[in-house]
C-alpha cells in the first residue's frame, strides 16, 4: 500500500490544465486504493510570488473549492493548508543543510528567473527544498505531478538520500507519477495552458464568460467552406481531452469534409465543457456560497496531518541528535 501526496499552489482558481493535468489524475490515483491520500494547498510556496494577504486567502479558498468540487472526499483523504502545519518549515531547515548550492542553482524554478536576480527572493531559491519537506514529512511514496515538476521530485530524492546518508535511514524516497495520458494541456493560444500566459480556460466561470473565452481560442483563417485539419487546430486539441470519443470522431470528420466554421467547433467545445464538468460546476457554486464549510473540512484534515507531522519530526530530530 503506498501513500499518495500532492500539492497545488494557491495562485488562483485552478484552470482546465490544472484540473486535467493534476487534480483529476491525483484523485483517480487516490480512488484506486483504500489508504488515505494527502492533498494540500501549497500556500507557503505561493508566498514566494504573492505578497498580498487577501489574495493569498482568497486563492486558498478557490483552490480548496476546486479540489472539493472535483470530488476530493475528506472523509477518506487528508486535505490541508501547507501553512497550517508549520512543522514543514522546520524540516525544510534540516533539509536545507543537506542540499548542495549547485543543485538549487540548477532548478528550473530558479533558473527561469535568474536573468532578473534582483527579483528573486531566497524563498524562490529554496523552493525545491520546501517541496521536498512537503513530501518527506508525510513519508509519501507516490507523488502525482505534471512533467514540469519532475526535476523537483528528482531533487527530493537526492536531498532525502543525502539526509539518510548523514543521519541514517529516516526519510522515504518518493516516486514521481507523471500522468502520461494527458501530459501538457494546451491553452487557447496553443501554448501550454498556464496562469502565467493568461491562456487558460476556467471551467468554474459563469457560462457567458466561459463561452466568450472559448470563442477566443486562436484558429487559422481557413474559410468556412474549406476542409480543415483537426490535428493542427487548438479547438480540437482541447475538445479531444473533454469530449467522448464518438463525439471527437464526428467533429474530426466535419473538419475534414469542410463546410464548418471554427465558430461551430468552438460552440461544440463549450457545450462539451459544460457537460463534462456539470457536477463539478454545481458543487463549486455551492461551496463558494459557504466558505465556512470549506474551512471546516480543511481544519479536520489539518488535525490529521499535524499528528503525522509531529511523529515524523520527532524521528528526524532524534536522527539528527536534537531530541
Ligand atoms: P500554472 O502553469 O498555471 O501556473 P501551476 O504551475 O500552478 O500552473 O501547476 C499546478 C499543477 O497543474 C502542476 O502539477 C502542473 O504540472 C499542472 N499543470 C499546470 N498546467 C498544466 C497543463 N497545461 N497541462 C498539464 N498539467 C498542468
Ligand atoms: N511545486 C508544485 C507546483 O508548482 C506544488 C507543490 C508544492 C507540490 N509542494 C508539493 C507538488 C509537493 C507535489 C508535492 O505545482
In short:
With 323 residues, the chain is mainly alpha-helical. Helices cover 55% and strands 7% of the residues.
Please give the count of helices. Answer: 15
Distance between the termini: 30 Å
Strands of the widest sheet, in order across it, are: 1-2-3
Percentage of residues in helical conformation: 40-55%
Order of helices and strands: EHEHHEHHHHHEHEHHHHHH
The shape, in one word, is elongated
- Percent range for β-strand residues: 5-15%
Q: What Rg is obtained from the alpha carbons, in whole angstroms?
A: 21 Å
Q: Low-confidence segments, ≥5 residues, pLDDT <50? A: none
Q: What oligomeric assembly is this protein in?
A: single chain
Class of secondary structure makeup: mainly alpha
Structure description:
- It contains 15 helices and five strands.
- By secondary structure, it is mainly alpha-helical.
- The strands form two sheets. Strands 1-2-3 form a three-stranded parallel sheet. The chain has a two-stranded parallel sheet with strand order 4-5.
- Helix 3 (53-69) packs across helix 14 (278-289), helix 3 packs across helix 15 (291-320) and helix 11 packs parallel to helix 13.
- It starts with a strand and ends with a helix.
- Bound molecules: adenosine-5'-diphosphate and tryptophan.
Tags for this entry?
two-stranded parallel ribbon, 15 helices, binds tryptophan, binds adenosine-5'-diphosphate, 55% helix, 323 residues
What's the structural blueprint in terms of helices and strands?
Elements: E1 5-9, H1 16-31, E2 38-42, H2 43-46, H3 53-69, E3 78-81, H4 87-96, H5 101-105, H6 108-111, H7 122-125, H8 127-137, E4 142-145, H9 150-167, E5 175-178, H10 207-215, H11 234-242, H12 245-257, H13 262-276, H14 278-289, H15 291-320
Parallel strand pairs: 1-2, 2-3, 4-5
Helix pairs in contact: 3-14, 3-15, 4-8, 4-15, 8-9, 10-13, 11-13
The chain binds adenosine-5'-diphosphate and tryptophan (TRP).
Amino acid at each position: 500500500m503506498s501513500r499518495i501526496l500532492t500539492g497545488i499552489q494557491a495562485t488562483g482558481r485552478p484552470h482546465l490544465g490544472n484540473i486535467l493535468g493534476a487534480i483529476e489524475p491525483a484523485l483517480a490515483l487516490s480512488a484506486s486504493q483504500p489508504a488515505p491520500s494527502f492533498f494540500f494547498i501549497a500556500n507557503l510556496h505561493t508566498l514566494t510570488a504573492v505578497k498580498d494577504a487577501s489574495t493569498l486567502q482568497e486563492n486558498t479558498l478557490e483552490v480548496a473549492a476546486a479540489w472539493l468540487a472535483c470530488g476530493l472526499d475528506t472523509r477518506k483523504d487528508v486535505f490541508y493548508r501547507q501553512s497550517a502545519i508549520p512543522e514543514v518549515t522546520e524540516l525544510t531547515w534540516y533539509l536545507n543543510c543537506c542540499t548542495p548550492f549547485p543543485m538549487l542553482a540548477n532548478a528550473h524554478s530558479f533558473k527561469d528567473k535568474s536573468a532578473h536576480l534582483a527579483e528573486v527572493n531566497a524563498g524562490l531559491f529554496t523552493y525545491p527544498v520546501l517541496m521536498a519537506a512537503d513530501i518527506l514529512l508525510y513519508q509519501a511514496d507516490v507523488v502525482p505531478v505534471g512533467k514540469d515538476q519532475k526535476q523537483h521530485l528528482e531533487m527530493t530524492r537526492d536531498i532525502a538520500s543525502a539526509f539518510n546518508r548523514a543521519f541514517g535511514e529516516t526519510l522515504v524516497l518518493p516516486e514521481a507519477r507523471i500522468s502520461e495520458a494527458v501530459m501538457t494541456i494546451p491553452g487557447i493560444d496553443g501554448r501550454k495552458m498556464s496562469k502565467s500566459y493568461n491562456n487558460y480556460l476556467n471551467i468554474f466561470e459563469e457560462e457567458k464568460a466561459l463561452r466568450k473565452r472559448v470563442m477566443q481560442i486562436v484558429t487559422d483563417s481557413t474559410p468556412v467552406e474549406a476542409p480543415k485539419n483537426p490535428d493542427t487546430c487548438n479547438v480540437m486539441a482541447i475538445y479531444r481531452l473533454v469530449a467522448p470519443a464518438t463525439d471527437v470522431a464526428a467533429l474530426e470528420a466535419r473538419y475534414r469534409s469542410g463546410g464548418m466554421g471554427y465558430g461551430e467547433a468552438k460552440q461544440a467545445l463549450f457545450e462539451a465543457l459544460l457537460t463534462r464538468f456539470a457536477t463539478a460546476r454545481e458543487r463549486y457554486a455551492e461551496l463558494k456560497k459557504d466558505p465556512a464549510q470549506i474551512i471546516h473540512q480543511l481544519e479536520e484534515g489539518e488535525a490529521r496531518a499535524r499528528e503525522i507531522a509531529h511523529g515524523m519530526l520527532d524521528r528526524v530530530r532524534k536522527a539528527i541528535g536534537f531530541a
